[in-house]
Specification:
Elements (H helix, E strand, L loop, with lengths): L5 E5 L4 E3 L6 H8 L17 E4 L2 E3 L4 E3 L9 H9 L7 E2 L9 E4 L26 E7 L11 H13 L4 E3 L1 H13 L3 E8 L6 E8 L7 E7 L3 E8 L5 E8 L9 H10 L3 H24 L6 E8 L1 H8 L19 E4 L13 E4 L9 H10 L8 E5 L4 E6 L4 E6 L1 H6 L14 E6 L6 E5 L11 H5 L3
Length: about 475
Amino acid sequence: MTQDPLVIFTPSGKRGRVPEGTTVLAAARRLGVDLDSVCGGRGICSKCQVSPGKGQFSKHGVTVAEDALGEVNAVEERYDRIRGLKPGRRLGCQAQIRSDVVLDVPPESQVHRQVVRKNADARPIVMDAATRKFFVSVPEPDMHEPKGDLERLSEALRGQWRIGEVSAAPSVLAKLQQALRKGAWEVTVALHQETEDGPRRILDLWPGFRAEPFWGLAIDLGSTTIAAHLTSLEDGHVEASAGVMNPQIRFGEDLMSRVSYSMMNEGGAAEMTSAVRAAIDDLARELAAEAGIEARDIVETVFVCNPVMHHLLLGIDPVELGQAPFALATSDAVALPARDLDLTALNPGAQVYVLPCIAGHVGADAAAVALSERPDQSDDLVLIVDVGTNAELLLGDRARVLACSSPTGPAFEGAQISSGQRAAPGAIEAIRIHPDTKEPRFRVIGCEKWSDEPAFWDEVGPG
């Protein structure tokens, strides 16, 4: 007898078998999955959007076929034509389950959204931004002095600011002449110099004097969450912060699951790279809107991340990190234009800096902690523990500092067992045992009632 299709929802991890032809929304309700719907399944509200996975998911023990969901129907086609669906998304109220499938419920489709809070702590720092603003007056062109506009701008920077030779990308050259003439031969230049003796590059320029400050993004790209902070490049203050779930969760909750997905599915690494870059772009737009600034004023971005996230961000297949000796493609710091990472929400000339990794599974996030907390400057022995899906430990003093990592996420969430779950709505967060009767009671995330109180199960729902 043929089994009914197995449906697995992420990030909740809830799973079960449903009859073939069941809609995704109906399956979600049957399994107690947190999938939103306002219009009653008529394909109008779009709250029930899901992203179906494809290929082999070794963590879940399933292989998802291309046709695991039924074909797009007329309701979905109409919605996509009028309002638009993100690539790969389906309407849960319309998509029918045909065979085993893994479905990701994005944050905007969850009734009880997970709250990602990662605030930045203020501390005294010395500002020495790599990108700075310079206002210059450029001599007008002369029939008797046939120099190009860039050459005369370079001379003006040298004469007025003692800045040596500069270069400019074709995209900057394309706007140079118009900016000079519109600004009556006065322009504000965004000049990037990564090191004191490094080359200088014009990232962008504006006609006349531009008073608005430049901004940078500090991004912690974690296995489970992405935290971003919009920071002033003038005084270092954090203007806005935001965080989202890492969309790569649908390919695997922990690092090894994602490495496995890359191994088992051709193009799997590229899928995960595309997903996380799109999420970073959305975060940048959200922060710019919250701060009321132009995204064009974000000219620098710094990333910290564990080695697997590091490789997937840069478009490097992490397969070598899944087996000894866990070789990194590079352990050095990486500097490159944001456009090379397809980050379109920033200034077109924005620069990206990724901190160096320490070892195969001790990444740039651990390097950032070491730079921030400076255990190497302590007379006492210091232990620093960064607990996340992948945890890093630093132990040391002035003599030396040791570092290692541990997969704490799978340990806490019960990887490879039926009852494991991340700290999401429905997960048990507190347990009490009566001192006399020894009867246990518990409370779950998303509900204030205890399990032995009236209406507890009505609020929590099936699951």
